[in-house]
């Protein structure tokens, strides 16, 4: 049995490797996962939620460059390296976009950046007033800036974390609930099956987005509340598939033998039936990843998903969708393309897994 299982696994793996789009999607998802984990390490703006605002340079085109005067804060923050890498730097320094600067002796003279060809009045800073001297660097905004003057590239990188991890949390919750209820319904049948199927049909009859909104309002707005709400609406499909597979598998000879040997129902379900019916569940999980990303984006667009200033692709579209008709469509199109590419990757890998795990082929 072990050799046969290993050979079937090896065969499925070989078939998956021959699927170009499946392998490409898998590598793309791994890349997005690494970006999500180390977003603050690679983001130009590594402040918490990439939320450094510069209203004077709002809505600038991709490739925009400007000199940035950084005035160090007198208040120090105690952050370890782990906290900075994974949760962002608590940056209290003041950043000022400038169009001109000149250093004379112990004084820095500068003019703040003003768009529209206007010129600001000259200001100055005395270095001796600070423990750490202010400094000027040139900042390059690869994707431009949003309507608050924040770096779009940094917001995209940090926002990938929500869209990526909501898939994992939502799918995990849906698998736990769906496999448990589906297994009980399929194995025991009768009244247990009737009650669980009634619950599945009631849940399925409610529009997904409406149900998520109701759960979110009940749990409250927030990061983890959205994850739980999405997960609690995606278990019904898993439960239906598991129920059907268990009903078919429980009549097999090896299950009859397990019952004759006196094995308990728990062992028969979780050690003998479930390992043999996981192929369709894996395929559904890949599709649920994509669905979870779309649902979260829809919630953020409606304003009940991840709350500001937290970066989210759906929230970025909500903030800038009106810029499509104002000559700056990239502000909404860039996060939209990110959502589309990630969802497509999960759908393609789901199709590749379906072909690889298909026993008849």
Largest sheet descriptor: 5 strands, antiparallel
Residues in helix, %: 55-70%
CATH class of the largest domain: Mainly Alpha
| CATH topology (fold) name of the largest domain | MetI-like fold
Classification by helices and strands: alpha+beta
User: Rough shape?
Assistant: elongated
Order of helices and strands: HHHEHEEEEHHHHHHHHHH
CATH architecture annotation name of the largest domain: Orthogonal Bundle
Uncertain spans: none
Provide mean pLDDT, rounded.
87
How many angstroms does the end-to-end distance come to?
Answer: 20 Å
Which strands sit side by side, in order, in the main sheet? 4-3-2-1-5
Protein name: ABC transporter permease
Subcellular location: Cell membrane
Membrane topology: Multi-pass membrane protein
InterPro entries: BP-dependent_transpt_permease (IPR050366), MetI-like (IPR000515), MetI-like_sf (IPR035906), OppC_N (IPR025966)
Would you spell out the secondary-structure blueprint of this structure?
Blueprint (H helix, E strand, L loop, with lengths): L1 H16 L2 H18 L1 H4 L21 E8 L9 H7 L6 E11 L2 E6 L9 E5 L8 E7 L10 H37 L1 H16 L2 H12 L3 H9 L3 H15 L3 H8 L4 H9 L4 H25 L10 H8 L9 H28 L4
Antiparallel strand pairs: 1-2, 1-5, 2-3, 3-4
């Amino acid at each position: 049995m072990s050799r046969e299982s290993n050979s079937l696994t090896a065969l499925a793996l070989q078939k998956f490797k021959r699927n170009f789009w499946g392998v490409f999607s898998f590598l793309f998802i791994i890349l997005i996962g690494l970006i999500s984990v180390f977003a603050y390490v690679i983001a130009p703006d590594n402040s918490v939620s990439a939320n450094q605002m510069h209203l004077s340079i709002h809505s600038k085109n991709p490739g925009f460059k400007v000199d940035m005067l950084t005035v160090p804060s007198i208040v120090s923050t105690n952050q370890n390296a782990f906290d900075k890498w994974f949760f962002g730097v608590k940056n209290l320094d003041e950043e000022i976009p400038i169009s001109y600067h000149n250093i004379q002796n112990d004084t820095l003279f500068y003019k703040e950046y003003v768009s529209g060809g206007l010129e600001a009045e000259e200001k100055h800073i005395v270095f001796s007033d600070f423990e750490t001297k202010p400094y000027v660097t040139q900042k390059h905004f690869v994707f431009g800036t949003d309507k608050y003057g924040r770096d779009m590239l940094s917001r995209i990188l940090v926002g990938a974390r929500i869209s990526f991890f909501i898939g994992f949390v939502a799918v995990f919750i849906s698998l736990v609930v769906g496999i448990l209820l589906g297994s009980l319904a399929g194995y025991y049948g009768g009244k247990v099956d009737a009650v669980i199927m009634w619950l599945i049909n009631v849940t399925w009859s409610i529009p997904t987005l409406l149900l998520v909104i109701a759960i979110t309002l009940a749990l409250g707005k927030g990061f983890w509340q959205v994850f739980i709400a999405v997960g609690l609406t995606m278990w019904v499909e898993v439960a239906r598939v598991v129920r059907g597979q268990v009903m078919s598998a429980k009549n097999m000879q090896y299950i009859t033998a397990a019952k004759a040997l006196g094995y308990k129902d728990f062992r028969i379900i979780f050690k003998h039936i479930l390992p043999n019916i996981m192929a369709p569940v894996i395929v559904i999980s890949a599709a649920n990843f994509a669905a979870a990303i779309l649902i979260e984006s829809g919630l953020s667009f409606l304003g009940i998903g991840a709350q500001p200033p937290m970066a989210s692709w759906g929230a970025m579209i909500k903030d800038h969708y009106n810029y499509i008709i104002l000559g700056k469509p990239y502000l909404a199109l860039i996060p939209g393309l990110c959502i589309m590419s990630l969802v497509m990757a999960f759908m393609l890998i789901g199709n590749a897994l379906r072909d690889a795990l298909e026993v008849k082929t």
